[in-house]
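Lab meeting notes turned into a lecture example. A postdoc, R.K., suggested we walk through two folding results consecutively so the class can see how the record format repeats. The first protein's sequence and structure tokens come next.
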Amino acid sequence: MSVLVVGLSHRSAPLELLERVALDGSRSRELAAGVVGLDDVSESLVLTTCNRTEVYADALSFHGAVAQVGDALAQATGVALAELTPHLYVHYEDRAVDHLFSLACGLESMALGESEILGQLREALRAGQEGAHLAGVLNPLFQQALRVGKRAHTDTDLDRVARSLVGAGIDRAASVLGPLHAARALVVGAGAMSGLAAASLTRAGVGDLGVINRTRERATRLAQAHQGQAYDWAELEPALQSADLVLTCTGATDHVITEELLSRDRTTRPLVVVDLAMPRDVAPEVAHLPGVTVWGLTDLTGRGDEAAPDETEQVLDAVRDLVSGEVAAYLATRRSAQVAPTLAMLRTRASAVVDSELDRLDQKVPDLPDAQRAEVHQSVRRIVDKLLHTPTVRAKELAAHDVDGSSVALLRELFDLDPRETAAVTTPPHVRGLP
């Protein structure tokens, strides 16, 4: 296994650059398809969220894959590699697995511990599966990452201290507007994040909820699910004018809410706008309008004020311990699995030797009765199986703790096993270049 991660996020890059490299679904799929076709990559998966763009790959060589993935990322985003490079991070093998598992638990998110990342990982995995960009490394790795993320929320108190982006925005809005049961709220967009926003607003007690989307049918479905009202996209301006709280998250590449749109016939009545989109839905000038408060992703980074700081840190330590244990277990399992092709080839070699010697025996003693011949054949095979049993068990145990693969290499050397033959035992046909 040689898992490689190349990407950038809110931890490594300014918001302006993250907006420029943000990829929609079709461009993400194009990038994944381009990466899997590179000489030094056999699998690929692209993860794009509101605050990160990452390429995961099963790398055949480290330096070659890093260079090729970097070039592909620059080409897909339209941002020069020289501009991207200072903000890119690279994780490889053990660190790549640790990064992914930590990400699944929300430890790498702007809102620490948020659970929306699990849905985004699941969607990225689905896209990779549908595009046939995954095989025997990234597919099980991301499946395990999803399980680890779920464990973090079920086996620790992470949910109690975590603050989602939506929850943080709603709480901040209440500090400006007061109790939200009297507020008129508008959700702009009808995607997954908008659905979460609508559900969170309902739980917060908002009684007057509106949903607007370019596709009226999607707005209607979301509004009906939360006893709200749907609007046509042409009604955006009056809907904004009557709202007290706006949560927006669309897939638009340009600003959806502009100064001109809000300033016409506007009073100074307080308005809170929570911009959850990447690129941003709200033009920067909107924040300068009288009575308007705008919060974007970089503002919603609270750690969770329901728990005391020391209690929060204890919970995070528990999640980190969970991640460390899961990473160690996963790597041990993977390393044990990596010795399997070599052991399979060893048994194939041993079986071939046994068959050859038994054929010689049959030729030398052609008159041996069938019953005795069968007993001799069974005894010889049983002896070989017993001789190979202990080395097989020990090889698996050693491989579980073998970081550099030296034990597998030694096994191949001792029995003169061709690594190309052993690799062919478990390599999927499309990776081997077969139809």
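The second example is placed directly after the first for contrast:
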Amino acid sequence: MARQVSLAAADRQQVVVDRVDGRMVRVWSQLPVCAAPASYRDWVWHAFDVVLPAIVPAWVKVCTPTLRPGDGKVRVDLPWQTPHTPPPLDGHTRALGVDWGVNTLLTATVADLDRDGCVVVRGRPLRFDATGVSAKLVRLRRHREHLKTKADHVTWLRDGRPADVPADPALTGKLVRLEAEHTAVCARIRHLNKALAWSAARWLVDHATAVGATVIYVENLATLEAGGRSRSLNRRLSGAVRGAVFTAIAHLAAKAGIAVVTVPARGTSSGCPRCGRAVKHVKTPERSAAGYRWATCSCGLSMDRDHAASQRIAARGLANQTKTLRDRNGNAAIRTATDTPVRHRARRPTRAATVGPQRDRRKTLPTPKQTRPATVKASRLLPLRRQVPAPAGSPPGSAGKRPAGRTPQETNPPGPVRQVPHTISTTTQRHPHRVRGAVLGRGFHRHVHATPITDRDARTGETSASLRIT
């Protein structure tokens, strides 16, 4: 018996799905009654009812299921579709431009289209940094290749023996263990890729909802081709599940009523978003990141290259949104686009600047050495010690009150003392500073740094996100 029967591969002449009521679906399937059917008499319609769980809404469209027989039962994988109205492709005034990266998987910028047709961007970027997960995936891929090489070598040793010599059980057992470990590593890689893709998509859609954006512009994945020395970059980007991330973004954005449009990717990182001239890629001013992650231009532009590319993507989308078309699969894209210079939103003056001249807060002198005061004030974190009367039978000169607690005579009480087991994990022994009285969470979330999602300010429209969550 097959492990699963995919009824979706058949047409309506063999499979029909009817909705009986809000909690039951009847599936009609035409199946043969013999091993070699020769005419229509050998085919009979069979019907079986499927009781839907409570999580399936009553207004959704139930699709053709997949049957998985086993253990005397037949399990049904029943997908359903939620009807929704496609969002408009033009008429947007606020958008989110997204640029793909290697370590920083997503870099986004909020852009607005004013009444004059100019694109105004905000200076604060939104980043989804997956450096830890990327490094973990690289280690898993190397381990997978190492296991594959060892398995091939053991297979060559096993098959290279003469025909009259019996098989070595040690080689056979080693090959089975290597194949099982290789399968487990592959499953781990797929799980991490899927979890990373949906986490990044949820983060991006939540940001678009928080800032009030009605469209998300991303680079067209089909045009992201690299040549020469940058082929390794394209290979690493392909390993970062860009396709899975885009599919997850389109799915979650459709549920939130946000349009997802692709724009041409050519020239987004090599051009200046302000003047359009070619930028120069240099190292970061702090030299904190490897590679040429910084972009400078003769017009005065100096920012992260991914941030500049996201601004250019947002400007392309907002300026050419009337050219947006849908293909037969329902994906929206802009085939040809013209670049439009962007300008940054003017910051609101502070209260000190409006009242009078602001004091220069730049540090010009070293910090003076602080001296310890003569009297040390007690900390508020110390526990309060209440006073209790002295116990009876105290020496004559000790009448009065003492701090609450055990008396000096009760420091070592009689009787057996219960021992409390105390164990320290290996992680605690290696890294004592990590102990905080709580168990560390598992998963890849502690390896991902992303801009927190906050609500907008009602007066300025700016978000108050300034830190990264771990």
